[in-house]
Each structure stands twice: as structure tokens, then as C-alpha cells.
């Protein structure tokens, strides 16, 4: 496979994606081609950097730090939360990613080498980012759709966290579906990248399968920890949303204030 052939295939697939999205008149039709272009540039830069990084633990640590920062920024921008939540989001990404990695390397399931640390770290951090984003998006919608139920709980004296419990559980469950399905269908519907990469690198299928199982277990653990931590941060809303708003928003009008404004508007008309 030459670079020219690769670029031709990528360009044709990008054109196909754009054509379908435009035909369906979806929102932001250039988003997928732009994401693909970014992937090409980022992977190109990554390939050049890894030549000097992959054998040095300190460089790997720096690279993982950059990954954590980028994942935190993506969650922050995607969910549009207040800046004060940035440290908590970073802590969620670090904690949810570090604990499974410590288990993997401490048990000796995978050799603690820069190569494996970078590979596993990147996979787990990326999954943590996805679970946090999915949890946040679902949680924001559920707070709005279950507003009446939450108000009923609050009127009975329940705490904000208790009133939001059903929404939090539903959002966390939804966020864990992709990684759960990936694990359930591995070897039947999909051939995971870690497995295929290990086989292509010369490992036996059995060794590749062992590595892939460890990766999947780490992903599931990181996802569960991410959902738990994220729910702990945003699972007790102080203000119920009147419309679609970022999580943790504190500038929302009170319920009574919104009702009064609506009545004044009707009187004025």
C-alpha cells in the first residue's frame, strides 16, 4: 500500500460520506470530511513523533498528559459546561483511565513498557472521553424531559441527588452501551484493532486474543468509573432546566420567575 493509493481511497470515501450527508440534508455536512482531514494530519504528525517517543517512558508520560488534556478539552467543548468544571473533568479522565491501567500493569497481564503504556493509555483515555460525553449529553436531555418527576421528588423533601437518580442511572447506562456492545460482539461481528494489530505485528492469535481481552476489560472498567465520577459531579442539579442548557448552568431562571415572565408576556399581548 503506497501513500498515493491510501490518499485516493480516503478521498473517495470522504466524497461518498459527504454526498450521503448532503443528500440527507443533515446538520453540519462538512463535519465528517473535516474530521477525516484532521485525522489524516494528526496521525501523520503522530507517526513522526512516535519514532522518538515510543521507547522513552518520560516522553510517553508527556504524550499521555497531552492526551488527557485534549480529552478534557473535547468533553468541555462538547458539553459546554462552565469553566469551573475543568479540574473536575480532568480528574475524571485521569482517575478513570489510571485505575484500570494500574491493575493491568500491576498484575503483569501486560508488560510495563513504554510501547504498551502508550497503546493502552491512548485506548483507555479515548474511551473515557466518549463515555463522559455520552453521559453528559444524555443527562442534559433527561433533566429536561424528567423535570416534572424531579420536581415531584423535591416537593416531597427529596434531595437534588435523589430526585435526579433515575435520570443519572439512565444516562450512565446509555453511555456504557457502545463499549458493552463492542465487548459482546468481539470476534463475532467485529475484529478489534488491538487484536488485528498484534497479529500483524507477529504475535500468535492466542497472544493477540489475550491482549485484546485485557484491553476490553480495561475499557469497561474505565467506562464504569467515568460514568460514576461524571454522575457524581453533575448528578445533583441545583437548578432544573427550562430548556436545553449546559450541565451545571447556574444562570437559569427560577421556575417561579419563568412562570411570572410567561404570565406578563400573555397579559402584554
Task: Outline the structure in words.
It is a single chain. By secondary structure, this protein is an all-alpha fold. It has twelve helices and no strands. Helix 4 crosses helix 5 and helix 5 (114-145) crosses helix 8.
Number of helices: 12
Q: What is the molecular shape?
A: globular
Question: What's the helix-strand series?
Answer: HHHHHHHHHHHH
Helicity range: over 70%
Low-confidence stretches: 250-269
Number of strands: 0
Q: Return the structural class.
A: mainly alpha
For the CA atoms, what is the radius of gyration? 22 Å
Average of the residue pLDDT scores: 83
Strand content: under 5%
Largest sheet: none
Distance between the termini: 69 Å
List the helices and strands and how they pair.
Layout: H1 3-24, H2 31-53, H3 57-79, H4 86-106, H5 114-145, H6 147-155, H7 160-163, H8 165-175, H9 177-184, H10 193-200, H11 205-234, H12 255-268
Helix pairs in contact: 3-4, 3-5, 4-5, 4-11, 5-8, 5-11, 8-11, 9-11, 10-11
Short description:
The protein is an all-alpha fold.
Features:
269 residues; 76% helix; 0% strand; mainly alpha
Amino acid at each position: 500500500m503506497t501513500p498515493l493509493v491510501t490518499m485516493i481511497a480516503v478521498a473517495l470515501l470522504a466524497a461518498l460520506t459527504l454526498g450521503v450527508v448532503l443528500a440527507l440534508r443533515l446538520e453540519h455536512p462538512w463535519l465528517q470530511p473535516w474530521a477525516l482531514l484532521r485525522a489524516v494530519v494528526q496521525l501523520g504528525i503522530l507517526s513522526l513523533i512516535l519514532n522518538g517517543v515510543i521507547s522513552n517512558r518520560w516522553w510517553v508520560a508527556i504524550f499521555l498528559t497531552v492526551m488527557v488534556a485534549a480529552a478534557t478539552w473535547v468533553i468541555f467543548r462538547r458539553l459546554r459546561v462552565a469553566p469551573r468544571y475543568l479540574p473536575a473533568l480532568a480528574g475524571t479522565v485521569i482517575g478513570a483511565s489510571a485505575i484500570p491501567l494500574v491493575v493491568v500493569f500491576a498484575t503483569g497481564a501486560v508488560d510495563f513498557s513504554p510501547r504498551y503504556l502508550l497503546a493502552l493509555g491512548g485506548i483507555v483515555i479515548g474511551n473515557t472521553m466518549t463515555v463522559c460525553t455520552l453521559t453528559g449529553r444524555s443527562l442534559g436531555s433527561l433533566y429536561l424531559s424528567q423535570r416534572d418527576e424531579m420536581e415531584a421528588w423535591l416537593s416531597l423533601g427529596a434531595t437534588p441527588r435523589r430526585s435526579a437518580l433515575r435520570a443519572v442511572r439512565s444516562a450512565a447506562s446509555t453511555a456504557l452501551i457502545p463499549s458493552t456492545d463492542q465487548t459482546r460482539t468481539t470476534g463475532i461481528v467485529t475484529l478489534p484493532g488491538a487484536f488485528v494489530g498484534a497479529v500483524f505485528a507477529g504475535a500468535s492469535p492466542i497472544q493477540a486474543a489475550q491482549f485484546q481481552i485485557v484491553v476490553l476489560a480495561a475499557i469497561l472498567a474505565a467506562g464504569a468509573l467515568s460514568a460514576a465520577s461524571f454522575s457524581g459531579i453533575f448528578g445533583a442539579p441545583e437548578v432544573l432546566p427550562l430548556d436545553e442548557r449546559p450541565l451545571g448552568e447556574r444562570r437559569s431562571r427560577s421556575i417561579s420567575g419563568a412562570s411570572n415572565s410567561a404570565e406578563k408576556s400573555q397579559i402584554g399581548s
